[in-house]
Design goal:
By secondary structure, the protein is α/β, with parallel strands linked by helices. Helix content is 36%, strand content 22%.
Length: 381
């Protein structure tokens, strides 16, 4: 069984070709620039040339691409964007237009592409199956897949006047109360909530970039995927109760996990944190004293505590690309390395979530993740 798992972050997109015919450590993987970094690089080059932009495609991750487009428009260069592409920068298109971006219809964009050869036309998307397939083919590997799993961070499309931070946290609360497990944040392609527009866009992009409709597609939120992947490190997953924090480039999220499932969670912006502040939040999460306002009023997303009983804080599992922040922690930290590779933790979490969502594959996946003896990579050649 082969599952292509792709964890799309702000800095990198981490790619794992999980194959139950191989030992997990021998599965093939790539760590490459994220789509938003790739777009940002091309936009900055266009800014230096003074070249106008046409942005089409779907809603994707912002951050670097957002800042690059903002600076491009601020430098006085033209930027045209279709509504879906423009929502990469803000769900409220009036705010996008205030950046200096002209929002045009799909038909107008097509006409511009024909009549304005001076425009740099960029297609926005978080997931390019064709690019990944070609990368593997360059190494002589044909992607014969039983499934594809993709993780992206999705705030959700908040209604006008509603904080996107509060909207996302209400969504996290709803998912935990409905299905108290980390894989509750994973969905088959045809069951994604309508409010999760970035997850929906991954499905559109997968089809547009060559993924066959016959291959099942699952999408998931990045932070729960990373935390679920961290639990596959025996030092983390072997504990009955544990706190795990994923220190991402943009967002830091911590889950408190116990025998009944998720006992608490908070999510903040990494840029607002240092080691002492993060230590304090983790201590409050363990003590069951953390309040939503403690995080939300500090420009974070919020906090939820479901178990009122304190948890002794004798172990904190840590993962994420900015985990070095926790090297200055006063807490008893452990840097999780599932199957020897922290950068692929989200991909392993995607595979583990797949086992929950697709029962027919569950036994084979769990056997493989459990360390069953498998073949070596040269046996596939």
């Amino acid at each position: 069984m082969r599952i292509l798992a792709v964890d799309v972050g702000t800095g990198t997109q981490d790619i794992l070709l999980f194959d139950t015919d191989l030992q997990v450590e021998n599965c093939f993987k790539l760590v490459m620039p994220s789509p938003t970094m790739m777009i940002a690089r091309r936009v900055r080059a266009a800014t230096k040339r003074g070249q106008p932009l046409l942005l089409t495609g779907v809603t994707m991750g912002g951050g670097p691409s957002h800042w690059a487009v903002r600076d491009h428009a601020g430098a006085g260069h033209e930027v045209f964007a279709t509504p879906q592409a423009a929502r990469t920068f803000d769900d409220d298109l009036s705010n996008v237009q205030a950046m200096g971006v002209r929002v045009v219809s799909e038909d107008e964009a097509a006409a511009l592409a024909r009549s304005r050869p001076d425009l740099l036309h960029l297609t926005l998307h978080d997931f390019d199956y064709g690019m990944i397939r070609r990368a593997f083919e360059a190494f002589g590997l044909e992607l014969k897949l039983d499934g594809v799993a993709v993780a992206v961070f999705d705030h959700g499309a908040a209604p006008p006047g509603i904080s996107d931070r509060q909207f996302r946290f209400d969504y996290l609360d709803e998912r935990i109360r409905a299905h108290n497990r980390l894989s509750a944040f994973a969905f088959p392609a045809d069951r994604i909530p309508e409010i999760m527009t970035r997850l929906q866009s991954v499905v559109t992009s997968a089809a547009a970039t060559g993924l066959s409709a016959d291959v099942p597609l699952m999408v998931m939120d990045t932070a729960p995927a990373a935390v679920l992947g961290a639990t596959l490190d025996p030092q983390v997953g072997g504990r009955e109760s544990v706190i795990i924090t994923n220190v991402g480039n943009f967002h830091t999220l911590a889950f408190r996990l116990g025998p009944a499932g998720i006992e608490g969670v908070f999510e903040h912006h990494t840029g607002f944190l240092d080691a002492p502040k993060l230590d304090g939040l983790l201590q409050a999460l363990a003590a069951s004293t953390l309040q939503h306002s403690d995080v939300f009023d500090d420009h974070g997303h919020g906090a939820l505590v479901y178990n009122p009983h304190p948890l002794p804080l004798d172990f904190v599992g840590v993962t994420g690309p900015r985990r070095s922040l926790m090297t200055r922690s006063a807490l008893p930290t452990y840097f999780a390395v599932p199957y020897g590779d922290m950068m692929i933790a989200g991909c392993f979490g995607l595979v583990r979530a797949w086992a929950d969502l697709y029962p027919d594959h569950r036994a084979a996946i769990l056997e493989s993740l459990g360390g069953a003896e498998r073949g070596a990579p040269w046996e596939l050649l």
